[in-house]
């Protein structure tokens, strides 16, 4: 019966606690199912052996009953033949066989009861194994979901300078800096051009004034 106790302990184990300690929950759950299947197979083999013993006990019981009946018939035949002494000997053999029948019957009844209990236990174990198989898919799915959530959260909150997101942020900062620098140069160039234009205009205006003065002098206009 120790096999059923071991399997019972395994089935009662808190799978979620085992998952918390496992490096790879998916592999751990699959291994648990494999272990449970092995235990159920072992229990099934034990049941098969018990059923074999029960059948053997039944065979011995039926053989003893047949022998008892045979000795009873021989006793009757002896009496019919007028041989009372031989009839007594046959009945003595029958009495000895009948004592064995009592023992065989008790052994068979015990084995039959134990086999019935084992059958019920194996049925329960197989039902629990089937339940565990269904739970296996759920636990693996939950584990994968947790991994996905953890991965996404890690990516969003990552401060690692080597991450793709961090690299993109740094690149954006560099582009922003270059754009600001270009804008500053443009503004500086604009201011420089404005001053140059003012001097150019002033020089043009002075040249025009000089030409106007010369023209007035030629024409005698004061």
From TrEMBL:
Domain of life: Bacteria
Chain segments annotated as coiled-coil in the UniProt record: 108-142
Record keyword Coiled coil present: yes
A Pfam family that the UniProt record links to this protein: PspA_IM30
Keyword annotations of the record: Coiled coil
Protein family according to the UniProt entry: Belongs to the PspA/Vipp/IM30 family.
Alphabetical list of PANTHER family matching this protein: MEMBRANE-ASSOCIATED PROTEIN VIPP1, CHLOROPLASTIC, PHAGE SHOCK PROTEIN A
This protein's name: PspA/IM30 family protein
């Amino acid at each position: 019966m120790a096999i059923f106790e071991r399997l019972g302990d395994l089935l009662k184990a808190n799978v979620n606690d085992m998952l918390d300690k496992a490096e790879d929950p998916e592999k751990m759950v699959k291994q648990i199912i494999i272990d449970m299947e092995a235990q159920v197979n072992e229990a099934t083999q034990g049941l098969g052996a018990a059923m074999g013993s029960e059948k053997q006990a039944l065979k011995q019981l039926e053989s003893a009953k047949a022998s008892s009946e045979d000795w009873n018939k021989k006793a009757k035949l002896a009496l019919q033949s007028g041989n009372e002494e031989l009839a007594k000997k046959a009945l003595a053999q029958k009495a000895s066989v009948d004592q064995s029948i009592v023992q065989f019957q008790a052994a068979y009844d015990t084995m039959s009861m134990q086999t019935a209990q084992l059958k019920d236990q194996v049925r329960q174990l197989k039902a629990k194994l089937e339940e565990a198989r269904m739970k296996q898919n759920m636990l693996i799915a939950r584990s994968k979901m947790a991994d996905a959530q953890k991965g996404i959260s890690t990516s969003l909150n990552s401060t690692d300078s080597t991450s793709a997101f961090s690299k993109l942020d740094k690149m954006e900062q560099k582009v922003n800096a270059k754009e600001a620098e270009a804008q500053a140069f443009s503004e500086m160039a604009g201011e420089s051009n404005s001053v140059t234009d003012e001097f150019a205009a002033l020089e043009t205006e002075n040249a025009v004034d000089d030409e106007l003065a010369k023209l007035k002098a030629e024409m005698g206009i004061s």
